[in-house]
Amino acid sequence: MSERVVLAMSGGVDSSAAAYLLKQQGYEVIGLFMRSGATDEVCAIDDPKSLPVINIKSHKQGCCSASDAADARRVADELDIPFHALNFQDAFGRIKDYFADEYLAGRTPNPCVMCNNWLKFGRLWEFAKQVGATKIASGHYAQLEIDASGKTHLFRGLDLSKDQSYVLFGIHPDLLPRILFPVGGYQKSEIRELAGAARLETANKKDSQEICFIPDNDYAGFVNRYRGEQQTAGNFVTQSGEVLGQHLGFERFTIGQRRGLGIAFGSPKFVLEIRPESCDVVLGDYEELGRKGLIADRTNWLAEVPRTFRCQAQIRYQHRPAECEVICRDDGTIEAHFDQPQYGVAPGQAFVCYDENRVLGGGWIRESLNQEASLNESHSTTTL
Protein backbone atom coordinates (compact mmCIF):
# COMPACT_ATOMS: atom_id res chain seq x y z
CA MET A 1 0.00 0.00 0.00
CA SER A 2 1.06 3.61 -0.63
CA GLU A 3 2.19 5.69 2.34
CA ARG A 4 -0.63 7.94 3.51
CA VAL A 5 0.07 11.66 3.99
CA VAL A 6 -2.20 14.48 5.19
CA LEU A 7 -1.56 17.74 3.33
CA ALA A 8 -2.55 21.16 4.67
CA MET A 9 -4.41 22.75 1.75
CA SER A 10 -4.98 26.52 1.92
CA GLY A 11 -6.54 26.95 -1.49
CA GLY A 12 -3.35 28.56 -2.86
CA VAL A 13 -1.09 27.50 -5.69
CA ASP A 14 1.71 26.18 -3.43
CA SER A 15 -0.35 23.64 -1.48
CA SER A 16 -2.21 22.72 -4.67
CA ALA A 17 1.08 21.97 -6.43
CA ALA A 18 2.22 20.09 -3.34
CA ALA A 19 -0.85 17.83 -3.64
CA TYR A 20 -0.04 17.17 -7.30
CA LEU A 21 3.63 16.41 -6.58
CA LEU A 22 2.83 14.09 -3.69
CA LYS A 23 0.41 12.13 -5.81
CA GLN A 24 2.98 11.92 -8.62
CA GLN A 25 5.43 10.52 -6.08
CA GLY A 26 3.02 7.72 -5.21
CA TYR A 27 1.66 8.92 -1.87
CA GLU A 28 -1.94 8.41 -0.81
CA VAL A 29 -2.86 12.06 -0.20
CA ILE A 30 -5.60 13.41 2.05
CA GLY A 31 -6.26 17.15 1.86
CA LEU A 32 -7.12 19.15 4.98
CA PHE A 33 -8.40 22.74 4.98
CA MET A 34 -8.05 24.49 8.35
CA ARG A 35 -10.89 26.89 9.03
CA SER A 36 -10.07 29.76 11.40
CA GLY A 37 -13.51 31.05 12.32
CA ALA A 38 -16.96 29.88 13.44
CA THR A 39 -19.00 28.14 10.79
CA ASP A 40 -22.51 28.62 9.63
CA GLU A 41 -24.68 26.87 7.18
CA VAL A 42 -24.25 28.45 3.83
CA CYS A 43 -22.32 25.91 1.85
CA ALA A 44 -21.47 22.40 2.94
CA ILE A 45 -18.35 20.50 2.00
CA ASP A 46 -19.29 16.86 1.97
CA ASP A 47 -17.16 14.14 0.50
CA PRO A 48 -18.23 10.54 1.09
CA LYS A 49 -14.53 9.65 1.20
CA SER A 50 -13.99 12.16 4.04
CA LEU A 51 -14.78 11.71 7.70
CA PRO A 52 -16.64 14.92 8.65
CA VAL A 53 -19.20 17.10 6.92
CA ILE A 54 -18.31 20.73 7.61
CA ASN A 55 -20.26 23.90 6.91
CA ILE A 56 -18.27 26.87 5.67
CA LYS A 57 -19.15 30.56 5.88
CA SER A 58 -19.81 32.25 2.57
CA HIS A 59 -18.04 35.55 3.30
CA LYS A 60 -14.37 36.37 2.87
CA GLN A 61 -12.14 35.83 5.89
CA GLY A 62 -8.48 36.26 4.90
CA CYS A 63 -6.75 33.16 3.55
CA CYS A 64 -9.18 30.91 5.46
CA SER A 65 -12.28 32.09 3.59
CA ALA A 66 -15.08 30.11 2.02
CA SER A 67 -13.67 30.89 -1.43
CA ASP A 68 -10.28 29.51 -0.37
CA ALA A 69 -11.95 26.38 0.95
CA ALA A 70 -13.82 26.04 -2.34
CA ASP A 71 -10.58 26.43 -4.31
CA ALA A 72 -8.90 23.75 -2.20
CA ARG A 73 -11.88 21.45 -2.68
CA ARG A 74 -11.86 21.92 -6.46
CA VAL A 75 -8.15 21.05 -6.62
CA ALA A 76 -8.78 17.96 -4.48
CA ASP A 77 -11.57 16.95 -6.89
CA GLU A 78 -9.30 17.54 -9.90
CA LEU A 79 -6.66 15.27 -8.35
CA ASP A 80 -9.21 12.77 -7.02
CA ILE A 81 -8.03 12.93 -3.42
CA PRO A 82 -10.18 12.89 -0.23
CA PHE A 83 -10.77 16.33 1.27
CA HIS A 84 -11.61 17.46 4.80
CA ALA A 85 -12.51 20.96 5.97
CA LEU A 86 -12.28 21.27 9.75
CA ASN A 87 -13.08 24.17 12.03
CA PHE A 88 -10.12 25.05 14.25
CA GLN A 89 -11.75 28.09 15.81
CA ASP A 90 -10.43 27.32 19.30
CA ALA A 91 -6.85 26.98 18.09
CA PHE A 92 -7.10 30.18 16.06
CA GLY A 93 -8.60 31.87 19.11
CA ARG A 94 -5.38 31.10 20.96
CA ILE A 95 -3.39 32.73 18.14
CA LYS A 96 -5.63 35.81 18.21
CA ASP A 97 -5.18 36.06 22.00
CA TYR A 98 -1.42 35.90 21.56
CA PHE A 99 -1.45 38.51 18.78
CA ALA A 100 -3.51 41.06 20.72
CA ASP A 101 -1.73 40.50 24.04
CA GLU A 102 1.74 40.89 22.48
CA TYR A 103 0.86 44.27 20.98
CA LEU A 104 -0.64 45.42 24.29
CA ALA A 105 2.61 44.37 26.00
CA GLY A 106 4.61 46.59 23.63
CA ARG A 107 5.98 43.68 21.60
CA THR A 108 5.68 42.78 17.90
CA PRO A 109 4.06 39.35 17.46
CA ASN A 110 4.64 36.83 14.69
CA PRO A 111 1.38 34.87 14.35
CA CYS A 112 2.63 32.84 11.37
CA VAL A 113 5.30 31.16 13.50
CA MET A 114 2.81 30.47 16.28
CA CYS A 115 0.29 29.12 13.78
CA ASN A 116 2.89 26.68 12.48
CA ASN A 117 3.85 25.62 16.00
CA TRP A 118 0.36 25.23 17.46
CA LEU A 119 -1.82 24.46 14.48
CA LYS A 120 -0.35 23.54 11.11
CA PHE A 121 2.24 21.13 12.49
CA GLY A 122 0.55 20.36 15.81
CA ARG A 123 -3.10 19.74 15.14
CA LEU A 124 -2.25 18.57 11.62
CA TRP A 125 -0.22 15.68 13.02
CA GLU A 126 -2.97 14.84 15.52
CA PHE A 127 -5.46 14.60 12.66
CA ALA A 128 -3.01 12.57 10.57
CA LYS A 129 -2.73 9.94 13.28
CA GLN A 130 -6.53 9.70 13.49
CA VAL A 131 -6.77 8.82 9.79
CA GLY A 132 -3.82 6.41 9.79
CA ALA A 133 -1.34 8.68 8.02
CA THR A 134 2.38 8.42 8.67
CA LYS A 135 3.36 11.81 7.21
CA ILE A 136 2.10 15.38 7.09
CA ALA A 137 2.89 17.94 4.40
CA SER A 138 2.47 21.59 3.50
CA GLY A 139 3.24 24.01 0.68
CA HIS A 140 6.02 25.82 2.55
CA TYR A 141 9.22 26.73 0.72
CA ALA A 142 11.67 24.80 2.87
CA GLN A 143 13.64 21.56 2.53
CA LEU A 144 14.44 18.58 4.73
CA GLU A 145 17.56 16.45 4.52
CA ILE A 146 18.56 13.28 6.36
CA ASP A 147 22.20 12.96 7.47
CA ALA A 148 24.30 9.80 7.67
CA SER A 149 23.09 9.10 11.21
CA GLY A 150 19.45 9.23 10.12
CA LYS A 151 18.68 12.62 11.73
CA THR A 152 16.41 14.99 9.80
CA HIS A 153 17.49 18.63 9.35
CA LEU A 154 15.56 21.68 8.17
CA PHE A 155 17.04 23.79 5.36
CA ARG A 156 16.05 26.89 3.43
CA GLY A 157 13.90 26.48 0.34
CA LEU A 158 15.69 26.44 -3.01
CA ASP A 159 13.99 29.71 -4.00
CA LEU A 160 15.61 32.05 -1.48
CA SER A 161 13.23 34.85 -2.39
CA LYS A 162 10.33 32.69 -1.17
CA ASP A 163 12.15 30.80 1.61
CA GLN A 164 9.89 30.18 4.63
CA SER A 165 12.27 28.31 6.92
CA TYR A 166 12.30 31.28 9.33
CA VAL A 167 8.65 30.71 10.28
CA LEU A 168 9.27 26.98 10.78
CA PHE A 169 12.00 27.15 13.43
CA GLY A 170 9.55 26.34 16.24
CA ILE A 171 8.50 22.92 14.94
CA HIS A 172 9.19 20.19 17.50
CA PRO A 173 12.37 18.40 16.36
CA ASP A 174 10.77 14.97 16.84
CA LEU A 175 8.19 15.92 14.21
CA LEU A 176 10.67 16.72 11.43
CA PRO A 177 10.97 13.10 10.17
CA ARG A 178 7.18 13.07 9.73
CA ILE A 179 7.05 16.17 7.50
CA LEU A 180 7.23 16.65 3.73
CA PHE A 181 7.76 19.96 1.89
CA PRO A 182 7.10 19.01 -1.75
CA VAL A 183 7.59 22.49 -3.26
CA GLY A 184 10.74 23.36 -1.30
CA GLY A 185 13.09 22.15 -4.03
CA TYR A 186 11.51 24.33 -6.72
CA GLN A 187 11.54 27.96 -7.79
CA LYS A 188 8.18 29.71 -7.40
CA SER A 189 8.01 30.22 -11.17
CA GLU A 190 8.43 26.47 -11.65
CA ILE A 191 5.58 25.75 -9.25
CA ARG A 192 3.24 28.04 -11.18
CA GLU A 193 4.28 26.41 -14.46
CA LEU A 194 3.76 22.96 -12.96
CA ALA A 195 0.32 23.91 -11.65
CA GLY A 196 -0.59 25.37 -15.02
CA ALA A 197 0.56 22.27 -16.90
CA ALA A 198 -1.53 20.15 -14.51
CA ARG A 199 -4.48 22.51 -15.15
CA LEU A 200 -5.00 23.12 -11.47
CA GLU A 201 -7.66 25.67 -10.53
CA THR A 202 -5.22 27.77 -8.50
CA ALA A 203 -2.33 28.00 -10.99
CA ASN A 204 -2.65 31.77 -11.44
CA LYS A 205 -4.11 32.66 -8.04
CA LYS A 206 -2.34 35.53 -6.26
CA ASP A 207 -0.44 34.79 -3.08
CA SER A 208 -2.06 35.84 0.18
CA GLN A 209 -0.11 38.68 1.81
CA GLU A 210 -2.17 39.44 4.90
CA ILE A 211 -2.65 37.73 8.25
CA CYS A 212 -5.63 35.43 7.78
CA PHE A 213 -7.72 36.93 10.60
CA ILE A 214 -6.84 40.55 9.67
CA PRO A 215 -7.56 40.75 5.92
CA ASP A 216 -7.66 44.58 6.03
CA ASN A 217 -4.17 44.78 7.62
CA ASP A 218 -5.51 47.08 10.37
CA TYR A 219 -3.62 45.54 13.31
CA ALA A 220 -4.46 48.27 15.82
CA GLY A 221 -8.12 48.14 14.81
CA PHE A 222 -8.14 44.39 15.36
CA VAL A 223 -6.57 44.74 18.83
CA ASN A 224 -9.16 47.32 19.88
CA ARG A 225 -12.06 45.30 18.50
CA TYR A 226 -10.76 42.09 20.04
CA ARG A 227 -9.72 43.41 23.45
CA GLY A 228 -11.90 46.49 23.67
CA GLU A 229 -10.73 50.09 23.79
CA GLN A 230 -7.52 50.36 25.77
CA GLN A 231 -5.92 53.29 27.60
CA THR A 232 -2.78 53.21 25.49
CA ALA A 233 -2.52 56.81 24.24
CA GLY A 234 0.61 58.62 25.34
CA ASN A 235 3.63 60.65 24.32
CA PHE A 236 6.30 60.45 21.68
CA VAL A 237 9.55 61.04 23.55
CA THR A 238 13.27 61.09 22.89
CA GLN A 239 15.66 58.75 24.68
CA SER A 240 16.40 61.59 27.11
CA GLY A 241 12.71 62.03 27.91
CA GLU A 242 11.89 65.15 25.85
CA VAL A 243 8.25 65.11 24.72
CA LEU A 244 7.92 65.42 20.94
CA GLY A 245 4.17 65.00 20.60
CA GLN A 246 1.28 62.66 21.34
CA HIS A 247 0.03 59.38 19.85
CA LEU A 248 -3.33 57.60 19.99
CA GLY A 249 -2.05 54.21 21.20
CA PHE A 250 1.31 52.43 21.43
CA GLU A 251 -0.18 49.27 19.85
CA ARG A 252 -0.08 51.19 16.56
CA PHE A 253 3.72 51.02 16.42
CA THR A 254 6.58 48.58 16.13
CA ILE A 255 10.34 48.90 16.51
CA GLY A 256 11.97 50.41 13.43
CA GLN A 257 8.76 52.00 12.11
CA ARG A 258 9.15 55.33 10.30
CA ARG A 259 5.93 55.82 8.35
CA GLY A 260 2.52 56.39 9.86
CA LEU A 261 3.68 58.16 13.02
CA GLY A 262 0.92 60.72 12.59
CA ILE A 263 3.16 63.69 13.26
CA ALA A 264 5.71 65.56 11.14
CA PHE A 265 9.29 66.15 12.21
CA GLY A 266 12.12 68.12 10.64
CA SER A 267 13.99 64.87 9.86
CA PRO A 268 13.00 61.19 9.61
CA LYS A 269 12.29 59.62 13.01
CA PHE A 270 12.12 55.92 13.85
CA VAL A 271 10.51 54.00 16.69
CA LEU A 272 13.34 52.96 19.02
CA GLU A 273 11.40 51.58 21.96
CA ILE A 274 7.84 51.04 23.21
CA ARG A 275 7.18 51.49 26.93
CA PRO A 276 3.73 50.06 27.76
CA GLU A 277 3.98 50.91 31.45
CA SER A 278 4.09 54.66 30.67
CA CYS A 279 2.54 54.48 27.16
CA ASP A 280 5.59 56.32 25.82
CA VAL A 281 6.88 55.60 22.30
CA VAL A 282 10.57 56.51 22.02
CA LEU A 283 11.66 58.08 18.72
CA GLY A 284 15.11 58.79 17.37
CA ASP A 285 17.36 58.97 14.33
CA TYR A 286 18.22 55.92 12.30
CA GLU A 287 21.69 55.65 13.84
CA GLU A 288 20.09 55.32 17.28
CA LEU A 289 18.11 52.30 16.07
CA GLY A 290 21.20 50.09 15.74
CA ARG A 291 21.63 47.30 18.30
CA LYS A 292 24.70 45.17 18.91
CA GLY A 293 22.88 42.25 20.46
CA LEU A 294 19.78 40.73 22.00
CA ILE A 295 18.43 38.32 24.57
CA ALA A 296 15.97 35.63 23.42
CA ASP A 297 13.97 33.10 25.40
CA ARG A 298 11.54 30.19 24.75
CA THR A 299 14.16 28.48 22.63
CA ASN A 300 13.66 25.56 20.26
CA TRP A 301 16.63 23.74 18.76
CA LEU A 302 16.40 21.59 15.62
CA ALA A 303 20.09 20.69 15.73
CA GLU A 304 22.69 20.12 18.40
CA VAL A 305 24.58 23.31 19.18
CA PRO A 306 27.49 23.98 21.54
CA ARG A 307 27.25 26.38 24.44
CA THR A 308 28.81 29.19 22.40
CA PHE A 309 28.90 29.28 18.61
CA ARG A 310 28.94 31.51 15.57
CA CYS A 311 26.11 31.55 13.04
CA GLN A 312 24.08 33.68 10.67
CA ALA A 313 20.83 34.86 12.23
CA GLN A 314 17.58 36.51 11.16
CA ILE A 315 15.67 38.87 13.44
CA ARG A 316 12.55 38.99 11.23
CA TYR A 317 11.18 37.41 8.07
CA GLN A 318 13.19 38.40 4.96
CA HIS A 319 15.85 40.05 7.12
CA ARG A 320 19.29 39.62 5.57
CA PRO A 321 21.10 37.08 7.81
CA ALA A 322 23.64 38.71 10.11
CA GLU A 323 26.85 37.18 11.40
CA CYS A 324 26.78 36.85 15.16
CA GLU A 325 28.05 35.00 18.20
CA VAL A 326 25.50 33.15 20.31
CA ILE A 327 25.76 32.09 23.95
CA CYS A 328 23.36 29.50 25.37
CA ARG A 329 22.91 30.59 28.98
CA ASP A 330 22.23 28.43 32.03
CA ASP A 331 18.69 29.78 32.43
CA GLY A 332 17.68 28.53 28.96
CA THR A 333 17.87 31.92 27.28
CA ILE A 334 20.28 32.84 24.51
CA GLU A 335 22.42 35.93 24.17
CA ALA A 336 23.48 37.08 20.70
CA HIS A 337 26.18 39.60 19.73
CA PHE A 338 26.21 40.86 16.14
CA ASP A 339 29.38 41.63 14.22
CA GLN A 340 27.64 44.75 12.88
CA PRO A 341 24.75 46.67 14.46
CA GLN A 342 21.32 45.45 13.38
CA TYR A 343 18.37 47.79 12.86
CA GLY A 344 14.83 47.04 13.97
CA VAL A 345 15.51 44.42 16.68
CA ALA A 346 11.94 44.07 17.96
CA PRO A 347 10.96 42.21 21.15
CA GLY A 348 8.35 39.61 20.27
CA GLN A 349 9.88 38.63 16.94
CA ALA A 350 11.66 35.33 16.31
CA PHE A 351 15.47 35.11 16.38
CA VAL A 352 16.48 32.23 14.11
CA CYS A 353 19.99 30.82 13.80
CA TYR A 354 21.39 29.33 10.58
CA ASP A 355 24.50 27.41 9.64
CA GLU A 356 24.58 28.57 6.01
CA ASN A 357 21.20 27.22 4.78
CA ARG A 358 20.54 24.83 7.68
CA VAL A 359 18.18 25.94 10.43
CA LEU A 360 19.74 25.38 13.85
CA GLY A 361 16.82 26.75 15.88
CA GLY A 362 16.29 29.91 17.85
CA GLY A 363 14.02 31.71 20.27
CA TRP A 364 11.86 34.78 20.81
CA ILE A 365 13.47 38.20 21.23
CA ARG A 366 12.93 39.41 24.79
CA GLU A 367 15.10 42.53 24.70
CA SER A 368 17.72 44.24 22.59
CA LEU A 369 21.23 45.10 23.81
CA ASN A 370 22.25 48.67 23.21
CA GLN A 371 25.84 48.19 24.26
CA GLU A 372 28.05 45.30 23.29
CA ALA A 373 28.55 43.12 26.37
CA SER A 374 31.77 41.18 26.78
CA LEU A 375 31.51 37.49 26.01
CA ASN A 376 32.10 35.05 28.83
CA GLU A 377 35.73 34.12 28.38
CA SER A 378 35.18 30.72 29.98
CA HIS A 379 33.34 29.54 26.86
CA SER A 380 35.10 28.71 23.63
CA THR A 381 33.34 29.74 20.43
CA THR A 382 32.56 27.08 17.86
CA THR A 383 32.13 27.70 14.15
CA LEU A 384 29.54 25.21 12.89
Q: Multimeric state of these chains?
A: single chain
Written as H for each helix and E for each strand, in order along the chain, the element string is: EHEEEHEHHEEEEHHEEEEEEEEEEE
As a whole number of angstroms, the C-alpha radius of gyration is 22 Å
Give the fraction of residues assigned to helices.
Answer: 10-25%
CATH superfamily of the largest domain: HUPs
CATH topology annotation of the largest domain: Rossmann fold
The dominant shape is globular
Which SSEs are present, and which pair or pack?
Layout: E1 4-8, H1 13-24, E2 28-35, E3 43-45, E4 54-56, H2 66-79, E5 83-87, H3 89-104, H4 111-130, E6 135-137, E7 142-146, E8 152-156, E9 179-180, H5 188-197, H6 219-227, E10 234-237, E11 243-247, E12 270-275, E13 280-284, E14 290-301, E15 308-314, E16 322-328, E17 334-343, E18 350-355, E19 358-369, E20 382-383
Parallel strand pairs: 1-2, 1-6, 2-5, 6-9, 10-13, 15-20
Antiparallel strand pairs: 3-4, 7-8, 10-11, 12-13, 14-17, 14-19, 15-16, 15-18, 16-17, 18-19
Helix pairs in contact: 1-2, 1-5, 3-4, 3-6
Tell me what the structure shows.
The chain has helices spanning 13-24, 66-79, 89-104, 111-130, 188-197, 219-227; strands at residues 4-8, 28-35, 43-45, 54-56, 83-87, 135-137, 142-146, 152-156, 179-180, 234-237, 243-247, 270-275, 280-284, 290-301, 308-314, 322-328, 334-343, 350-355, 358-369, 382-383. The protein has 384 residues and is of the alpha/beta class. A hairpin with a 5-residue loop joins strand 10 (234-237) and strand 11. Helix 3 (89-104) packs antiparallel against helix 4 and helix 3 (89-104) packs across helix 6 (219-227). The chain starts with a strand and ends with a strand. It has 3 domains: 4-197, 3-Layer(aba) Sandwich (Rossmann fold), CATH 3.40.50.620; 232-284, Adenine nucleotide alpha hydrolases-like domains (SH3 type barrels); 290-383, Beta Barrel (Elongation Factor Tu (Ef-tu), domain 3).
